[in-house]
Amino acid sequence: MKTHTVVTGLLAGCFGGMLLLVEPVLALDAVKAVSPAGDAESLQVQVPARVAATIRAEVLNARVLELNREQNDDGVLYHAVVAGDAAEYDLIIRGDGLLLEKGLSHRDEEAETPQRSLDNVPENVRATIRRETGAGTLQVVREQPAQYVAEVLQGKEQYRIVVAADGRLLVKEYAGREGDGE
After folding, report:
1. Is the dihedral of CA 103, 105, 111, 115 positive or negative?
2. What average pLDDT does the segment 29-47 reach?
3. Which of 124, 151, 171, 175 has the fewest CB atoms within 10 Å around its CB?
4. Under a CB-based contact definition with an 8 Å cutoff, are residues 158 and 173 in contact?
5. CA-to-CA distance for 39 and 48, rounded, in angstroms?
6. Residues 6+ apart with CB under 8 A from 125
7. DSSP code of 126?
8. Can you tell me the distance from the alpha carbon of 73 to that of 95, in angstroms, rounded to the nearest whole number?
9. In the chain, helix, strand, coil percent, each to 5?
10. Residue 17 near residue 4, CB atoms below 8 Å
């Protein structure tokens, strides 16, 4: 297994097909990055277009803080720490752009509890679940101590979404493809 770690703030260099650019021009397959010191200097991290699109879709005003590229038998995975308007998230994205997991940095999950109707959760939680579900179909919501869990279907992809009682997204993780028996 090969792992490449790219911490923003480095000068241009090639890492197994991934290029870090220190240029003000945003390419179609680049995402905004910041230096480790949080300088206002904007860097561009070049990744596959589908990976960049996933980062932009999942985190509002995304700024990549750290990016790891892992090559394994199943292909390429990108692990990114991304700061957005609301919080800092850890993302795991396949090379083809499929989001496998999204969560607040360094958060653990709690055990599951009984199912609830979406109508019976606080409005801020309901709004976050609806936003993250998009055009998908809500399958189930479970309340956990100070958090709610929603299982959703986006196209044929199944995701599990965990939302804190205050409406903050804690985790969005890939749960498999519909009909795959996962």
Report:
1. negative
2. 58
3. 124
4. no
5. 25
6. 148, 163, 164, 165, 167
7. H
8. 13
9. 15, 50, 35
10. no
**Token digits of residue 97:** 């752009």
Token representation of residue 73: 């038998």
pLDDT higher than 80, residue 113: no
Burial of 129 (0-12, 13-18, 19+ CB in 10 A): buried
Largest CA distance in the chain: 51
**Higher per-residue confidence, 152 vs 85:** 152
Tokens of 115: 């199912």
Residue 116: partners with Cβ closer than 8 Å, 6 or more residues away: 141, 142, 143, 148
Q: What pLDDT is recorded for position 32?
A: 57
Contact 34, 66 (CB under 8 A): no
Closest of 110, 74, 76, 72 to residue 92, by C-alpha: 76
Domain at 115-177, CATH class: alpha beta
In three-state secondary structure terms, 148 is strand
Q: Where, residue-wise, is CATH 3.10.450 in the chain?
A: 115-177
Could you give the C-alpha distances from 141 to 10, 30, 125, 159, 160, in angstroms and in order?
43, 35, 11, 12, 9
